[in-house]
Design a protein that fits this description.
The complex is a heterodimer of chains A (303) and B (309). Chain A is mainly α and 303 residues long. Chain A is built from 13 helices and no strands. Classes of the chains: A mainly alpha (303), B mainly alpha (309).
């Protein structure tokens, strides 16, 4: 075979190679795209946003205060005037449920933020340092895990006296164990990655590596855990309110409203119905959202 | 194996000691002491009371006394009910709670496991959707709401079952249902997801290829392996049932330990709160210990060497 110059035509680049790849998406965009495909999760997300929205602006636009009493109007059934009826002191139940949304949601959010802070720092330090420190720190977590935490939340509330701030404290310091475990597991696997080695070679300190590399990369599981911790905290507060350790009157969380409703169930079932619905819908919304986030943020299920 | 068991038992005892100490300190950190919320009591009587309950001893002395009594399983006297000890209260009321709790756990297992397995076998078909709908409602509706709904429908409207109190078998049904809702839903979800995982395993394919009947495959190969994670849930479930009983027993006016605990919180009856907390903690920790020890027998992949697992 004769080899000549004509056989060696340069191939004109027509961009085929580049066309094969799909547009590059960041982790966040990717997660959002996957979350949008998850119908239940979107229902959950919009419900959560809606509840937060009415919790924030509702009390501003309402015509009465949550503590306005009018005994002439006690125990009225739901009507055009009082959408959810009134309670035994003639307070408008709709407005009380709106205010309750504020309190219950802030309990959920603040308590899980405290969990988040303690859990991420504790789990992060244990995972990063590893070895004996990790064994001891996780040993403590394992030990605490076996204790019925709610008992200690109750004890703390008895010691601290009922009230909003004390609920934050009691729930915040009791429920960080799950978060610590998850963060530690993430960090243990992430710290073997090359970019951590690269950062270390460049002279980054342990703290910088934890703060700049490991924690941002564990954000997925952290967000999922937090989404599921919020309804848990709301639930627990409702429980505490029920045994008389909730927020102080005339303030009322959904838990307080429900437990007031339970006492008048025989004559005025609607007084339990509305706050109970509020709790249940919020729980459902957060659970749907959390499940969807799990599918969307977990790289193992990435399609 | 033996060294693991020993290690596990020793660490459980250490945990118990820590818990009792923390609980003791928490109770004594309450400002004012146990009798300060009462109506005005003359200082002389107050002094006598404090003398009687040895509240004037140093904290350390009280701690030592309490531990010494505890080692004889004596939880001390009640501050509110004269002449009754915490032991009396537990002895009288715990059997009631135990009965209610056992029925609830039984319900949760008998309903939850088949429902979860069925949902997994019919994944993305209507039995799956129906089961998961109920399971999701089960975890999102607070038990006190469910309890009051049950009372409202079955006791007040239909008059089928008693609304409250304790006695013959029919009194157990409603509170046990309310108490079981959460764990049932959780077990159903757990069984479903673990069953789905197992069904995707190669040995299920092998069993099919061998020509085993569907029943044998499901029962002997799939379900038995799928239930291993459910066993780990026994500890948390018992804890959940315990704390759940506080509310359920209060609503249904059941004379169990849960209601006594809530009453003692209302009354600020510190020795009862302390004693019941210690009692419950011992119960849950022992249960966790038992589960940990039988777990490797169910799952041979777990090796007991004192590390991990």
């Amino acid at each position: 075979m004769h080899v000549n110059k004509e056989l060696f035509e340069p191939l004109h680049s027509q961009g085929h190679a580049e066309m094969q790849t799909r547009p590059i998406t960041t982790y966040g965009q990717n997660a959002w795209r996957r979350l949008k495909e998850h119908k239940l999760a979107m229902v959950g997300l919009y419900t959560v946003l809606f509840i937060i929205f009415i919790a924030v602006i509702g009390p501003w636009v309402s015509h009465a205060s949550y503590s306005d009493q009018n005994l002439m109007l006690a125990n009225q059934a739901p009507s055009g005037e009082h959408w959810f009826g009134t309670d035994s002191l003639g307070r408008d139940l709709f407005i009380r449920v709106l205010y309750g949304a504020r309190i219950s949601l802030s309990i959920g959010i603040v308590a899980s933020l405290i969990n988040l802070t303690i859990g991420v720092i504790y789990g992060g330090v244990a995972g990063l340092l590893g070895g004996r420190v990790d064994r001891i720190m996780m040993g403590i977590v394992d030990v605490l895990y076996g204790i019925p935490m709610l008992l200690y939340v109750i004890l703390l509330m008895v010691v601290l006296q009922p009230g909003l701030t004390n609920i934050f404290i009691a729930l915040g310091i009791a429920y960080w164990l799950g978060m610590a475990r998850i963060v530690r597991g993430q960090i243990l696997s992430l710290k073997e990655q090359e970019y951590v080695l690269a950062a270390r070679t460049l002279g980054a300190s342990n703290w910088q590596i934890l703060y700049r590399h490991l924690i941002p990369n564990s954000m997925g599981p952290i967000i999922i855990t937090m989404t599921l911790a919020i309804p848990e905290a709301i639930f627990t507060e409702a429980f505490l309110s029920f045994i008389g350790l909730g927020v102080a009157a005339p303030m009322a969380s959904w838990g307080v409203l429900s437990s007031e409703g339970v006492t008048s169930l025989r004559s005025y079932p609607f007084q339990l119905f509305f706050p109970a619905m509020a709790i249940s819908i919020t729980m459902l919304a957060f659970i749907f959202l959390g499940d969807g986030l799990r599918d969307a943020l977990d790289p193992r299920t990435r399609r | 194996m033996l060294s693991y068991m020993l290690k596990r038992i020793v660490s459980s005892l250490a945990v118990l000691l820590a818990i009792i100490t923390i609980t003791f300190l928490l109770m004594h950190a309450i400002p004012g002491g146990p009798f300060s919320s009462e109506k005005k009591i003359s200082p002389a009587i107050m002094k006598n009371i404090e003398e009687h309950y040895r509240l004037n001893d140093s904290l350390w002395q009280q701690y030592v006394d309490y531990m010494a009594n505890l080692s004889r399983f004596d939880l001390g006297p009640s501050f509110k009910y004269e002449g009754r000890s915490v032991n009396d209260i537990i002895r009288e009321s715990f059997p009631v709670s135990l009965e209610l709790g056992m029925v609830s756990i039984g319900l949760a297992i008998v309903i939850g496991i088949p429902a979860g397995a069925l949902a997994a076998l019919r994944q993305n078909k209507w039995p799956d959707y129906v089961t998961m709908l109920f399971a999701t409602i089960g975890v999102s509706v607070p038990s006190f709401v469910l309890a009051t709904l049950l009372i409202y429908v079955f006791a007040l409207k239909l008059s089928l079952l008693p609304a409250a109190m304790w006695g013959s078998a029919e009194y157990v049904i409603l509170p046990a249902l309310a108490l079981a809702s959460h764990p049932t839903a959780f077990i159903a979800r757990l069984t479903r997801s673990s069953m789905l995982e197992v069904l995707a395993q190669d040995y299920i394919k092998t069993a099919r290829a061998k020509g085993l009947s569907e029943f044998v495959i499901m029962y002997r190969h799939a379900l038995r392996n799928a239930l291993i994670p459910v066993v780990t849930y026994i500890g948390p479930m018992a804890a959940g049932i315990l704390t759940g009983s506080f509310i359920i027993e209060t609503i249904f006016a059941i004379p169990g330990l849960g209601r006594h605990f809530v009453t003692s919180i209302y009354n600020r009856d510190y020795t009862v709160i302390l004693g019941v907390t210690v009692f419950y903690s011992v119960l849950v920790i022992s249960l966790n210990l038992v589960v940990d020890l039988i777990y490797p027998r169910l799952d041979p992949r777990i090796k007991l060497n004192g590390k991990g697992g």
